[in-house]
Design goal:
The protein has 51 residues and is mainly α. It is built from three helices and no strands.
Length: 51
């Protein structure tokens, strides 16, 4: 277990805001806490940040 926790690759593979935005965009389709309109707005913002 210690090996898995200490050697597993992080969710953000690229440093900075663009990498974080890409990681969030990849995870967004699987969530259910936001409405469809909220998801679309967040996806638009993340798309802009990931450039």
């Amino acid at each position: 277990m210690i090996t898995t926790v200490t050697t597993q690759e992080g969710a953000v593979r690229e440093p900075g805001p663009a990498g974080a935005a890409r990681a969030l965009r990849a995870a967004l389709p699987g969530q259910s806490a936001l409405t469809k309109a909220e998801q679309q707005l967040l996806m638009d913002w993340l798309r802009r940040l990931s450039v």
